[in-house]
């Protein structure tokens, strides 16, 4: 653990764990975009932060200079922990991703929609008659974890353990590598048991799917399977939980958008895309593996880059009124799910869950607002979303 | 005479975001991996021009092209 001094200059000394950044990063990113436009910090062994859409895009496309073997910025990075395909570079990336894609097409995901809806209805029914709740804890966090558990063929009762691993790997692990290695070991042991049981008795789930998958005619190595399973669990939960939480946070504060969406459910699709643009939860990292120049700035080998899709999505060079949520925005090429070969494989799943979660929430609670007597708290580092979201219902 | 539009998807750019399919379902179809291609010969039925332009503008990979014939 470390005691980092407060930031005095965002462009030369930024810290993505600074409380101001965690609480409200958007004004900071606007400032950086206006002047740098690539910020740098000596903290965390050296990290760049491009704030413009064009630069984030260029880096995401440039897998020769920017590797995915490290996708998290950490104070004391452990050796790379492969979780294919997110940590894979070409040429290994393509087959590792291709084998997963058929399981995540819109049609493949549609079969989980009734279940997602039943989960949301169960949660809103449990809140019926209450005058207050925590939208993050009582609702958002419960939805993706149960859906992904179903997809993996694992009991949803394991949810608290899944959330602990995610908290340890993505948040505590930024400053404490021991906790990353311990959580990774626990996850591997957990999944190894499930892999063994599916080998004996395959089922209709993603673990069995991975066991049946082949690359070049060969089954996947156990290490590959465990890495992919860790990825699916981690990436499938707090990203979407954060996105749902951000949507509720926005609609709690902006009565006009909320009432418009309730009155015109046909706006849901564009509203979901716009909320994804404005509050994209995920910032992933790259390691500079060859010196490069992007946007007129030098990137030195060995340093990291925070690839902020949320900052790119707020670039006024790309979006009119970039700082405003426009729920019927038409043209919207946001990159909330990343861009290039690492486009989030779960994007169709996330969209389905967010859409169903908002639809069911608004049916149950067309009127709600932030509870002014309690504070909203935000996650930190790679995924941004409300962790406490006190709401007044009705 | 008004121009006829034809959509096409650059398979080297498409990463399967599915934005085009969601915005203009009649004009695009998906393969088994969720990557998009033009439905049929890509000709845009009169009345769907706006959706075609929307699909083009909303593709984060700039993979959707429109040819004016």
The total domain count of chain A is: 1
Integer count of domains of chain B: 1
Largest interface: A-B, 22 and 19 residues
The general outline of chain A is: globular
Largest sheet of chain B: 2 strands, antiparallel
Helical percentage of chain A: 40-55%
Tell me which CATH architecture of chain A applies here: Orthogonal Bundle
In whole angstroms, how far apart are the ends of chain B? 11 Å
Q: How many β-strands of chain B, per DSSP?
A: 4
Give the integer mean of the pLDDT values of chain B: 96
Oligomer description:
heterodimer
Helix tally of chain B equals 2
What ranges of chain B have pLDDT less than 50 throughout 5 or more consecutive residues? none
Structure notes:
The complex is a heterodimer of chains A (394) and B (69). With 394 residues, chain A is of the alpha+beta class. Chain A has one domain: Cytochrome P450 (Cytochrome p450, Orthogonal Bundle), CATH 1.10.630. Chain A has helices at 10-13, 19-23, 26-35, 53-61, 93-98, 106-110, 113-127, 135-140, 142-152, 159-171, 177-200, 206-212, 222-253, 255-263, 268-278, 309-312, 347-364, and strands at 38-41, 47-50, 66-67, 132-134, 214-215, 218-219, 283-288, 292-294, 297-299, 304-308, 368-370, 377-378, 386-388, 390-393. In chain A, strands 1-2-10-7-3 form a 5-stranded mixed beta sheet, with helices on both faces. Chain A has a 3-stranded antiparallel beta sheet with strand order 4-14-11. The N and C termini of chain A lie far apart (43 Å). Chain B is of the alpha+beta class and 69 residues long. Chain B has one domain (5-68): Alpha-Beta Plaits (2-Layer Sandwich), CATH 3.30.70. In chain B, the strands form 2 sheets. In chain B, strands 1-4 form a two-stranded antiparallel ribbon.
């Amino acid at each position: 653990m470390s005691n980092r001094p407060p930031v005095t200059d965002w462009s030369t000394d930024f810290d993505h764990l600074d409380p101001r950044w965690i609480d409200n990063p958007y004004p900071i990113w606007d400032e950086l975009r206006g002047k740098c436009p690539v910020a740098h910090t000596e903290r965390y062994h050296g990290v760049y932060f491009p704030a413009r859409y064009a630069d984030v895009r260029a880096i995401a496309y440039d897998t020769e200079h920017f590797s995915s073997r490290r996708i998290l910025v950490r104070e004391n990075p452990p050796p790379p922990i492969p979780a294919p395909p997110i940590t894979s570079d070409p040429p290994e990336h393509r087959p590792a991703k291709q084998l997963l894609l058929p399981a995540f097409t819109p049609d493949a995901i549609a079969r989980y929609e009734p279940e997602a809806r039943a989960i949301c209805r169960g949660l809103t029914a449990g809140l019926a008659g209450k005058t207050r709740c925590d939208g993050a804890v009582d609702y958002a966090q419960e939805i993706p974890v149960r859906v992904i558990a179903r997809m993996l063929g694992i009991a949803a009762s394991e949810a608290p353990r899944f959330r602990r691993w995610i908290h340890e790997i993505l948040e505590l692990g930024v400053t404490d590598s021991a906790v990353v290695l311990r959580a990774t070991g626990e996850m591997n042991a957990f999944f190894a048991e499930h892999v063994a049981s599916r080998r004996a008795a395959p089922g209709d789930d993603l673990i069995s799917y991975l066991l049946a998958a082949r690359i070049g005619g060969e089954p996947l190595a156990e290490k590959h399977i465990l890495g992919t399973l860790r990825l699916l669990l981690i990436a499938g939960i707090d990203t979407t939980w954060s996105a749902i939480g951000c949507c509720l946070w926005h609609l709690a504060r902006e009565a006009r958008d909320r009432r418009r969406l309730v009155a015109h459910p046909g706006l849901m699709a564009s509203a979901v895309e716009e909320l994804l643009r404005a509050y994209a939860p995920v910032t992933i990292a790259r390691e500079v593996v060859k010196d490069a120049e992007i946007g007129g700035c030098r990137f030195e080998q060995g340093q990291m880059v925070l690839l902020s899709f949320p900052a790119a999505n707020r670039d006024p060079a790309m979006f009119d009124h970039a700082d405003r949520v426009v729920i019927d925005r038409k043209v919207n090429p946001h990159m909330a799910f990343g861009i290039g070969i690492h486009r989030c494989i779960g994007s169709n799943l996330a969209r389905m869950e967010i859409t169903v979660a908002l639809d069911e929430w608004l049916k149950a609670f067309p009127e709600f607002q932030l509870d002014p007597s309690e504070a909203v708290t935000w996650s930190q580092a790679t995924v941004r979303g409300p962790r406490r979201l006190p709401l007044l219902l009705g | 005479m008004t121009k006829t539009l034809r959509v096409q998807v650059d398979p080297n750019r498409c990463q399967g975001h599915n934005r085009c399919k969601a915005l203009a379902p009649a004009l695009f179809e998906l393969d088994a991996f969720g990557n998009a291609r033009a439905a049929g010969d890509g000709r845009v039925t009169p009345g769907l021009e706006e959706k075609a332009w929307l699909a083009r503008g909303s593709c984060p990979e700039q993979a959707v092209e429109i040819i004016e014939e």
